Amino acid sequence: MEKVIEVEGLIKTFGETRALDGLDLTVEPGQVHGFLGPNGSGKSTTIRILLGLIRSSGGSARLFGEDPWKNAVALHRRLAYVPGDVNLWPNLTGGETIDMLGSLRGGLDPKRRQELVDRFELDLTKKAQAYSKGNRQKVALIAALATDAELFIFDEPTSGLDPLKEAVFQECVKEITGRGHTILLSSHILGQLEHLANTFTIIRNGKTVETGTLGHLRKLAASAGRDPDSMSLEDLFLSVYAN
Amino acid sequence: MTGFAGTGEAIRFALKRDRLILPLCLAGLIGWMAVYVVSYSGLYATQAELNALYKSVAGNPALIAMTGPTGGLRTLGGATAWESLPVVSILSGVFAMFSVIRHSRAEEEDGRTELLLASGSGRFAPLAAALIVTSAALMLAAVGNVAVLAIADYEVGPSILLSLAILGFGLVITGTTAVFAQVTGKARAARGLVGIVIGISWLLRAIGDTGDGTLTWLSPLGWAQQTKPFWEDHWWPLLMLLAATAITISFAFRLLARRDIGSGLIQPRPGPARASPSILHPLGFSFRLQRGSIVGWTAMLFIYGFAVGAVGDNIESLLESSPTFTEAFASASGDLIDSYFASILTVIAVMGAGFTIAAVLRPHSEESRGRADLLLTAPLGKVRWVSGHVLIAYIASAAMIGLTGLGLGIGLGVATGDYGEVGKLFASGFAQVPAMWLTGSLALLLFGISSRLAPVAWGLLATFILIWTLASFGDIPQWIIDLSPFSHTPAVPAVSLDLTPLLVMTAISAVVTFAGLVLWRRRDLL
Ligand SMILES: Nc1ncnc2c1ncn2[C@@H]1O[C@H](COP(=O)(O)OP(=O)(O)OP(=O)(O)O)[C@@H](O)[C@H]1O
Ligand SMILES: [Mg+2]
To answer: Could you read off the pLDDT of A39-52 as tens digits, one per residue?
Structure first.
């Protein structure tokens, strides 16, 4: 089956800085793929290349088999994105923003929109300048989750959400996988990732360090002489960094 | 006084952030004065030349309206002060507006002030730092101006008065900006309001100076000009400037003490939970973002046109009573008043190009504030998004300058009861459109090359204003004058319309716009 995301040897330089240095990432249809790495390791940069916002300096990146830089508009019809730091138009209300973003994709299903608004408990009549960080995040989440995209790209989507809304987000992720759709989820909340994702890619300094299922990662840890079964994703993550 | 704790830190931070831009602005303000000093000392080296200048200019109501009272033109100092005082004052005011907002309201809007306050700074520290940095820069500029004048052998006392008058206007705008930065929660809105204050200051004194003078005393720019350096040397209007500065600044702090951090005094009211269909389309949404500034600018320019048109009648009769002016203005052929209107339309077009640049660069501010990502990760093409904003900018610029012409015509009609000129003036406004488009397209080109280059467009506009100012001296090389698109616009309605330069400029702006879009498509988002 066609891979949803296929990144090989991806390189991105910003002047002197080498943000990506031969990164690999493969996401199969239906996966919830956890994408993790320390601050500044290149997660957001990879995602921005996949979204066609910036151009790679080398290597290859494919989304649904196509070049995200050249076919951005066509590919964007098939995906939805939520950044970790949502900036909104200060004069628009949350409701207006959701509708406007939805209209770019031909409109949202009003029932689905209302249902998400109720679950996330968002006051749609507030102007964006009056929203808290978590509420701004909810606006982008609702706008994305109300679509019927085949691929969802989340870059720390729940930063600022309270634990109850975090749980709502986790339910939504399960509904997406229930529909057979794919998710790339970058996050620092390892508990969340462990719970939601079925495969992982761990990167460091713009390079892929490990990739595979949790079981596979545990096996690697075992070969390094540790007791694999007792290890959480957090322990694995820390042990990968330690080497 | 704990409210001011951390002011020193904040000043250091602001200076570090501005280490490049601040020296540039200072050089600009002092350099502008130097340009006047060099041009005037070169042009009017002898008393005979000054007398000739006085004879041809003094009392000319059109020039009084544009620049200021002409009584001092018999001396070199008076002539220099006549033109430099209002222009450098307004530039200082614009600098003060940008600087105060940049370090107070804009910081707060981006959420950085909160961090600062959380780490132990007093709530007054950011505003205090913004005011101190801005006023210190203005004072340095004043010292620089005195030095420039002294080097060129101008009398010291009046040179100081001239520099202080300019400083005074800058300080009043500093205080005014501080007030508006408390009232509204948004930097863009605050800048818009201060811009209107500067515009009204100019307009009030223009009407006052050509009439009985009452309105002049309602304008801080009027106060600055009433110091009449090198001529009557009044020092006491400086006190009015100082008082206005003190009042506005203390008022700003009083407002700051009462409001919440992160918002303005005017709290945003709740709005609709559903979007109106008008923004459910990329172009409609872009228009919505630009609507406020389009309406503001259009209203301001129309009113301005109307006011100038309404006093146009007086000016005509005054002009006709003086054979010197009849000669001077008639050399351009046609009606006297038409030459006056043509020069007014040029001034407004150059100012209006400020709108064109801001509107074309709207995607730039969306990009730097991180809002472009949400739009451009939806199925909305990069080029389609930016060209929508450019289209809006170009159409609104044309409508705006056309309406200014209409305002002139209606104002004149109200004053004279004869509305026969309305159509002609309306059409004359449109002659300025290609130069505005060309300026806008250059801004787009810079934005297309890189996000960081986009603000250079403002430097370009400053250059065009400088060229336009210098062109009135008449002895700078033609190739420099030709660099500004506004030099190529025929001075309608004073001369007959020559379409060639207009078509050429339109074609060039189309090509440059296209190049800007291509470059934008090829570059990374910030
Ligand atoms: N526009 C840019 N210009 C220069 N350097 C950049 C730019 N964008 C990213 N970088 C650099 O690239 C590297 C990778 O950054 P990136 O944002 O991809 O990291 P990240 O893994 O998402 O980190 P975090 O977990 O903190 O979000 C960092 O060193 C960053 O400083
Ligand atoms: Mg990141």
So the answer is: 999 999 999 999 99
